[in-house]
Every structure is written in structure tokens, then in C-alpha cells.
């Protein structure tokens, strides 16, 4: 699947999904998604899909290429959860993500990539332990239009989740990694990050909306 989002100068948009996206076993093939993003001068885009739910044997390859104009800001959300409907702890095959963010002049600002084999998350040696939803958020763009590190570090207060915040290279913004105990906690973290991103970027809190 291929998508393209082009946000004009001074505009603002929020793109999400109706619900989580289930990825099934494609029997040797991978579900493939490529997204191209262009955010114009002083514009704002939040791309926050609900988590992928990876069924046994599933493979997913995701690629995002984003270009930011002067004073543009961009929120990219990415999350996955594991589910075996038979309750046998059968793993998915692979999930891979590759994000490249450039300036309006083509300078690479951020490259964020990961690749996780489902077999590595099974059993007592799993690096995520008892956590059920893995999330990544990139908050990119002009620093005066992004929330602070302290605000982001507090989004898990009262939530069944752990959060880590890192400064991105080239003063490009913040990277947030999150492990949540369940879908409710993951959704709460996502909502808080979206809210403070919009507040910093537009100067006001977003109105709560149903899916």
C-alpha cells in the first residue's frame, strides 16, 4: 500500500485510523506500506494510526519518507501488539520500520529504523517482558513548536506503561519509546502525546473526539 500526505503552508491536519489494523500471515510474503509526507512552511501534521496487531506468521514492512519545510512540525506514531487467537503464543514473523526525515533542502535530519523478529519476543528471555504494546513516537520540527522533554517524560503518569525520551540528532526534535501493559494504557499514552504536541504547535488543546 502506498500513501502520500501533502500539507500546505500554514495548514494543520490529523490523520489516524478507525481502529487497530490486523496483519495476517501472508505465507512467505510481507504486508508492505510506504508513506510519503510533505509538510509545508509553518504547517502541522499528526500521523497517529492505531497499533498493528500482528497475528502468527505475519510480516510487516513499513517505510516513511518525510520532508519538513521551515517551522513545520510533524508527529509520527508507530505501534504494534502481538496476538495469537489460539492462545498458543505463536509468534509473528517480522516487523520492520524505516523512517527518513529531511529538510526542505534535502538534508537528512533523522533516520530511525528497527527490525524485530517475533520469535525474539517469546519466552522468559523476551526483551519486552510482560509488556504487550510497543510504541514509537517521533516529534519533529522547529523546537519552539514542540513540547518539552519534561512534558513528554510525564505522559505515563498513572498509566501501566514505561516511557523513554531521547533528543534526536540535528536538533530535529524528540524520540519517544513506550512499552504498555495493554491497549488501554497504549491509547492513553498516544492521546496524551497528541494533545501536548497540538498544544505546543498550535497554542491550544485539541477537542476530544471519538473515532
Helix share, percent? 10-25%
Quaternary structure? single chain
Name the beta content range.
35-45%
Estimate the mean pLDDT confidence.
Answer: 95
The ordered H/E elements are EEEEEEEEEEEHEEH
Total of domains: 1
Distance between the termini: 22 Å
Structural category: mainly beta
Tally the helices: what do you get?
A: 2
**Shape assignment:** globular
Segments where pLDDT lies below 50 for 5+ residues? none
Question: How big is the Rg?
Answer: 17 Å
List keywords for this structure.
211 residues; mainly beta; 5-stranded mixed sheet; 2 helices; 13 strands; globular
Account of the 3D structure:
With 211 residues, the protein is mainly β. It has one domain (2-202). It is 12% helix and 44% strand. The chain has 2 helices and 13 strands; from the N terminus they run E-E-E-E-E-E-E-E-E-E-E-H-E-E-H.
Please describe the topology of this protein:
Layout: E1 2-7, E2 12-15, E3 21-23, E4 31-39, E5 44-47, E6 52-54, E7 59-68, E8 73-82, E9 94-103, E10 108-117, E11 133-141, H1 149-153, E12 161-167, E13 173-180, H2 183-202
Parallel strand pairs: 1-4, 2-5, 3-6, 4-7, 5-8, 6-8, 7-9
Antiparallel strand pairs: 8-11, 9-10, 11-13, 12-13
Q: What does this entry show, briefly?
A:
With 211 residues, this protein is mainly β. The protein is built from two helices and 13 strands. The chain starts with a strand and ends in a 9-residue tail after the last helix.
Amino acid at each position: 500500500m502506498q500513501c502520500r500526505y501533502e500539507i500546505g503552508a500554514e495548514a494543520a491536519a490529523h490523520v489516524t485510523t478507525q481502529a487497530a489494523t490486523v496483519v495476517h500471515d501472508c505465507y512467505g510474503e510481507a504486508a508492505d506500506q510506504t508513506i510519503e509526507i510533505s509538510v509545508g512552511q509553518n504547517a502541522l501534521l499528526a500521523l497517529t494510526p492505531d497499533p498493528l496487531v500482528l497475528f502468527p506468521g505475519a510480516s510487516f514492512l513499513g517505510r516513511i519518507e518525510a520532508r519538513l519545510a521551515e517551522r513545520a512540525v510533524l508527529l509520527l506514531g508507530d505501534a504494534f501488539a502481538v496476538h495469537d487467537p489460539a492462545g498458543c503464543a505463536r509468534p509473528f514473523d517480522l516487523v520492520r520500520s524505516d523512517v527518513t526525515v529531511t529538510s526542505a533542502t534535502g538534508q537528512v535530519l533523522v533516520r530511525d529504523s528497527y527490525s524485530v523478529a517475533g520469535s525474539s519476543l517469546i519466552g522468559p528471555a523476551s526483551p519486552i517482558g510482560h509488556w504487550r504494546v510497543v510504541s514509537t513516537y517521533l516529534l519533529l520540527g522547529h523546537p519552539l513548536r514542540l513540547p518539552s522533554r519534561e512534558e513528554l517524560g510525564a505522559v505515563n503518569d498513572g498509566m501501566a506503561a514505561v516511557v523513554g525520551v531521547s533528543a534526536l540528532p540535528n536538533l530535529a526534535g524528540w524520540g519517544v519509546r513506550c512499552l504498555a501493559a495493554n491497549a488501554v494504557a497504549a491509547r492513553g499514552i498516544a492521546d496524551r502525546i497528541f494533545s501536548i504536541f497540538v498544544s505546543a504547535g498550535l497554542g491550544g488543546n485539541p477537542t476530544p473526539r471519538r473515532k
